[in-house]
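note to self — DONT lose this again. spent like an hour looking for the file last time. sequence + predicted structure for the chain T wanted, 501 res
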Amino acid sequence: MKRYLLFFALSFMALSAMAQNDDWAFDFDEWVDQSDFDAFKKADNEKFDAYRDSINRDFARALEGKWSPFKTNPPKERPQKPDPKEPPIAPERGPMSKPVDLELMPSNPVLPAPEPPAPEKRHIPLPKPPAMSQTMDVPFYGSNVRVELPLKNEMDKCYLAGTDERSVANFWRSLTNSDFQSTVNILVNAQRSMRLNDWAMYDMTVCLTKKVFPGNNDAQAVATVFLLNQMEYDARICRTNKGLACMLAIRDIMVYDIPYLTMGGRNYFLFMPNGAQKTIDGNICTYNVNFAHATIPVNISLARSPRIPRAAAQRTYNRTVSGRTVNITANQNLLDFYKGYPQVDMQVYANAAVDSATSASLLRQFRPMVEGKSKKDAVATLLHHLQYCFDYATDDDQFGYEKPFFVEENFYYPKNDCEDRAILLSWLVRKLLGMDVVLLHYPNHLSMAVCFPEGGVSGTYVTIDGKRYVECDPTYIGASIGMTQPSYRGVAPEVIRVARY
């Protein structure tokens, strides 16, 4: 086992070009707080190492103290939508077959659309990586990431004897004595080169610790938190009745189906291998101290699509509606990444970036449908196509739980439902037509609405900041712009803003 513990200087061969640069290609202005960096810039590597090691030694001493008991909040279930087994069909004739002006009043304060998060400023600069030797491969969604290991005797001491405070503290010390800094260097540079968000960084760190500590879930949890803390992410270790777990502070978003603990005004969500956190009894123990500078909460939004190697999905979407065919093959590796994504609030899916290859293919195939048409006719064409180009199924029937789709997932799974179509239509309208949209979250249903700048479009609408957004429901089969499902006429929806491209 110990031979695998040559861990904490992992580096990716894929980034070897960076490593060959004597200056270690990195924009320090994006990594450090400039007010603190000047002092570090003058320090030599030995002083930096001493400072870094002192932080870890002090923290290890704190870990030896008695951990406090806490009771976690039970997993919050995503609101269940008792969707109809079949999508409603709009009447072809009669008074309900034409849109009629009806203003809906939002049931919530309409917040601004989310802005892409600014990069967090770190406090600790990155030194140059050491020379490397020996290699192993770490799998990460289709990549066999080549990892190099320097030979250092201290790494053989990285051993977790138990889950008690003293054992965890001693393990932390042994990790501190290893040459872990090169791991931090490479993870951060991998984040930049692969455009990984914070959740993907956590995911990649877990892949690394699994490779180095195979079968030892407790050691993986501690090592994961250790590395995340060095990158200044706000993560903690806790002890449960199922073993040690990693707790992540997640920014401004509710994560469903995961137990969590509220400390210092932040929600810390528990994660364990194979979803074991869902079966803990809720009684945990953790420490009351913070690792120095580890204050950055995990941002789970996807403002940029990660650069994950492309592999053809097992299924290819191919449907023809009104003589227009759409044929899409999604990236299987990206779909696997999405499959393990936590279940989060709707705005994360609605504002997520789309894989560049899938985006290009979608726009190439949908653009001829709208070229040369007025905004109203173009939206009507997209609305009609989405009403008929998918088979319908509730999430409960297809998955057994609520699962909103990222845009790419619509072209892989056999069927979709209302939120999936509304999010996809909102993406197409923004990307192809440059129009503003909002989502309309009714009780048990998600629709969307479009702002027509030229006006003159009748139907159900909401007014936001003086602009009129007319409903376009891709799950109300055969319905035209402005028509609302009968069961939601006059119902005040929650309005979710969507960022404009």
